[in-house]
Write a structure and sequence with these properties.
Elements lengths: L1 E4 L14 E12 L5 E14 L2 E14 L2 E16 L4 E12 L4 E17 L3 E21 L5 E6 L3 E15 L4 E12 L3 E12 L4 E12 L9 E13 L8
Length: 251
Amino acid sequence: MAALGAIALGSVAHADDATWASRAQVGYTKTGGNTDTSSANALFHIAHVVDRWKFLFGVEGLYGSTRGETTAQAWDVHFQANYRFTDRLFWYGALRYDDNRFSGFAYQQTTSTGVGYQLIASDATKLSTQLGVGVRRLRPEILTEDSVGAITGVTELAPTTDAVLDFAVNFEHALSQYTKLIANVAVESGRNNTMTSAGVSLQVKMSEVLSLAAGYQLVRNSQPPPGAGPNTALTTLNLVYARRNPKLAPD
């Protein structure tokens, strides 16, 4: 049988502070029977505004095991600074580090800059997009896995550096007073690999700060080394703790 548990993480901001917004979520699943599997995931995003500047920070993690062997392990940290020229047009500079043990890349780290635009900014709907260029350094590795999917051997390859096109779309829409849809797509495309990350989450509000969320995320690497598949998919059911500002979504 499957058992689901989740806990709320603390927030560093207060709802009455108009310059802060934050969101934390965590989920855990365990399935028993012929095959024992378990997985856990966590996320923390925060946004802060100072005059024309907006700062965004996020960290996400994932762990999974099957029959006591690790079959999923990944974490991601990112930081972005936006400078607002107008109410809708902004410049951004971003840093991102991705470490997915099962992707075929020991790490992918990117520094990028470009421009963004807030296409929709109503109380119910927010839609923004950004486009820029950057430099990415990644280190591929050849993986050997057993029948369960656990890694039994790693052959490290030389790290590479290339220029990338950086593109992202963020969408948020309130379906009702109690439900909200959040979706995002991010692409880093370069000569050595194109990494595409797409996610969608449906949140159902339980109180002013707590929600239940069902989500799906797909990460695709176009040129993974031998031994690693191109796609990684994750389906989650999480408890979300948020101190939100309707004018300042941290996603």
